Amino acid sequence: MNTLFPIFVKIENLQTLVVGGGYVGLEKLTALLSNAPAASVTLVAPDIRIEITELAEQHPGVTLITDRYKAEYLTGKDLVIVGTNDKAVNRQVQADCKTRRILVNVADTPDLCDFYLSSVVKKGDLKVAISTNGKSPTFAKRFREVLEEILPDSLQETLDNLTAIRNKLKGDFQEKLERLNEITKVLK
Ligand SMILES: C[C@@]1(CC(=O)O)c2cc3[nH]c(cc4nc(cc5[nH]c(cc(n2)[C@H]1CCC(=O)O)[C@@](C)(CC(=O)O)[C@@H]5CCC(=O)O)C(CC(=O)O)=C4CCC(=O)O)c(CCC(=O)O)c3CC(=O)O
Ligand SMILES: NC(=O)C1=CN([C@@H]2O[C@H](COP(=O)(O)OP(=O)(O)OC[C@H]3O[C@@H](n4cnc5c(N)ncnc54)[C@H](O)[C@@H]3O)[C@@H](O)[C@H]2O)C=CC1
């Protein structure tokens, strides 16, 4: 059974820590910033890839710390993503997060994750998050590509029109609901 509960997090409202500055650190930082360029993200690692340094230069919310992980870096953090090449370090970060009730993702160990990152389809304001329950991230990526291909660019116009109608509709909640369901019947 897939018991993952999907939520859309306002990541700009949180303090995020990424531990590890290799390919995985870069992938996860890119995922965060492509959704929320202004997100506050601290990344700590003794070796930090040049692409990460370049990303940090373009994103004032990103702070880089060239150091080995220490528990003190968890202070004030809400969300942690760890992807070092040292399993013992990953395990330690996870344990430290659990003690502090901080949500943690250990990129290469699904069993240690409180949450997974998803493949993300974006068309204007529409965002579709895809997960395979950890079974095949590559399938998630491919399915994202399929959805990106089939969703029309005109979708944003549809959303804008529906917002305008939604804001204009008078009446109580039930009446608005019925009217919006009626108008959007064609989408079924
Ligand atoms: C559980 C999860 C935890 C998490 O990372 O959050 C996880 C775990 C692991 N990934 C691994 C490998 C790869 N991951 C990708 C890609 C992505 N991985 C992502 C998410 C997730 N990956 C979470 C589950 C998501 C779900 O529920 O479906 C995506 C969707 C989002 C993102 O990372 O931002 C992003 C696609 C973004 C996009 O393009 O849309 C590719 C392909 C590629 O990069 O092209 C490969 C190589 C091919 C392969 O192995 O499949 C390994 C083996 C590591 C090893 O062998 O050492 C593990 C560990 C394990 O499974 O044990
Ligand atoms: N979930 C995923 O999407 C994937 C996970 N992986 C796994 O993730 C791990 C990391 O992979 P890469 O990023 O490619 O490795 P990498 O070798 O490119 O980078 C490792 C990073 O960990 C940092 N690091 C090492 N010790 C540290 C410490 N004590 N504190 C803080 N940072 C520390 C290094 O400085 C470096 O920045 C590997 O074990 C790999 O098997 C690999 C591919 C995909």
UniProtKB/TrEMBL annotation:
It holds the Pfam family NAD_binding_7. This is precorrin-2 dehydrogenase. Residues 124-148 form the Siroheme synthase central domain. NCBIfam families: cysG_Nterm (TIGR01470). It catalyses: precorrin-2 + NAD(+) = sirohydrochlorin + NADH + 2 H(+). Keywords: NAD, Oxidoreductase, Porphyrin biosynthesis. It comes from Nibrella saemangeumensis. Its EC number is 1.3.1.76.
